[in-house]
Amino acid sequence: TVLVTLRPFPEYEYGDYVELSGEIERPRATDGFDYREFLAQQGIGSVSYFPSVRRVGSGGGNDLLRALIGLRGHLRHGIE
């Protein structure tokens, strides 16, 4: 499993299919904290910082969860 760090924009929606292109590396060590071991406990063995991203499709994921996320967005928009 790879932990990917992306820039906040453009935004991607739940269920979007994306294609990533970048370097995969081992997690960086930090002073006083074993980040590599922390991620390993969560099943993550590699990281990729700010790869290029291209949306290649949509409609993936769980249908119910996608509908609930859409409803939340409509309600949030109505409140704003």
Biggest beta sheet attributes: 2 strands, parallel
Please give the number of β-strands: 4
Low-confidence stretches: none
**Average pLDDT, to the nearest integer?**
92
Helix percent band:
25-40%
Sheet-strand content, in percent, reads 15-25%
Q: Give the helices and strands as they follow along the chain.
A: EEHEEH
Outline type: elongated
Instruction: Supply the helix-strand structural class.
Output: alpha+beta
Adjacency order of strands in the biggest sheet: 1-3
Number of discrete helical segments: 2
End-to-end distance, in Å?
Answer: 37 Å
Radius of gyration, Cα only, in angstroms?
16 Å
Fold and architecture overview:
The strands form two sheets. Strands 1-3 form a two-stranded parallel ribbon. A two-stranded antiparallel ribbon has the order 2-4. 29% of the residues lie in helices and 24% in strands. It is elongated and about 45 Å long. With 80 residues, it is of the alpha+beta class. The protein is built from two helices and four strands.
Quick structural summary:
This protein has 80 residues and is an alpha+beta fold. The chain has two helices and four strands.
Topology:
Blueprint: E1 2-5, E2 17-21, H1 35-40, E3 46-49, E4 52-57, H2 63-79
Parallel strand pairs: 1-3
Antiparallel strand pairs: 2-4
Defining traits:
80 residues, alpha+beta, two-stranded parallel sheet, two-stranded antiparallel ribbon
